[in-house]
Amino acid sequence: xxxxxxxxxxxxxxxxxxxxxxxxxxxxxxxxxxxxxxxxxxxxxxxxxxxxxxxxxxxxxxxxxxxxxxxxxxxxxxxxxxxxxxxxxxxxxxxxxxxxxxxxxxxxxxxxxxxxxxxxxxxxxxxxxxxxxxxxxxxxxxxxxxxxxxxxxxxxxxxxxxxxxxxxxxxxxxxxxxxxxxxxxxxxxxxxxxxxxxxxxxxxxxxxxxxxxxxxxxxxxxxxxxxxxxxxxxxxxxxxxxxxxxxxxxxxxxxxxxxxxxxxxxxxxxxxxxxxxxxxxxxxxxxxxxxxxxxxxxxxxxxxxxxxxxxxxxxxxxxxxxxxxxxxxxxxxxxxxxxxxxxxxxxxxxxxxxxxxxxxxxxxxxxxxxxxxxxxxxxxxxxxxxxxxxxxxxxxxxxxxxxxxxxxxxxxxxxxx
Length: 417
Hints:
By secondary structure, the chain is an alpha+beta fold. The chain is built from 10 helices and 11 strands.
């Protein structure tokens, strides 16, 4: 019997109800199991991280430093630690995670200092690596400077953002590194060196009273071997794959352009990349041969409400401009205070204050990769990290850069007993 135009809908609803009753006893336990698994992972990870002891080391630079960023690259190679989470039991039952390190450059009223935050268990390894390249450096366990600032909009005005790579193929292209600036020889005379980090140090040293800038580069070893999406137990390195694909694309695009330009010219020269394409490919290939890290960059500009400088924010952003190149990669600010460009985006700064509070808390925790942060990272290799974080040589003459006044020296061997 025809029951009208809604008969098909009635049949469909009955069918849906039938299948809902059929699969609900299976689906609900499955969904609850997924939720429990996610909560369990977060719980055991937090438990492991909270039980670890973390320390903050201050690096006091020697008065005369002749080492370049290449020395710091060798140090950073020791930060590439993938152990601790190799087995299923380690990762999902004990909650272990591979170590991360927070490399920090801080200016408090123009006084510039270098810090490294790490698990206490790794102190000996990191100190040995630093002393091997910088024998004159002094390393102290320092109190946490970040604890001196608490969130109070009436007492502190905070502008914060993260920095990410600016190229649309974020992980495929490197930034402009110390190699591109010609800092590959430690014996190069100081007057001929162009250290890109000097611009940052000078800007930090120019801060005035009640002004602070905190910059942290949080890094952990990038584990390239991961399951390839859509495959069964097939491992791939997405970072290296993206670099290889880009090199191939550059060559194919250039060949295509050359073929179109020389289509009617029988005497055309044989295929040969120009210096522009060759330099890009050389940078990409060098980029893929060094230790990769997952990196997050966080920056805070903190002042008293009446000391907030109009040039403070543009100055902070411009500190990273020298690491960019039109044919390679660079940095751009994202998130945080950079999310609010217009007054109507945030009534009475309610959302902005939540962002500031979260950023200050995340900075103090030195967290990035796991809860409660879980922010998206990008890949940098040891050469790139050494470019943006190294102990500056005498090319940097910033008077407020903390240095050791005298050099260490061994006692003469002919002293009387």
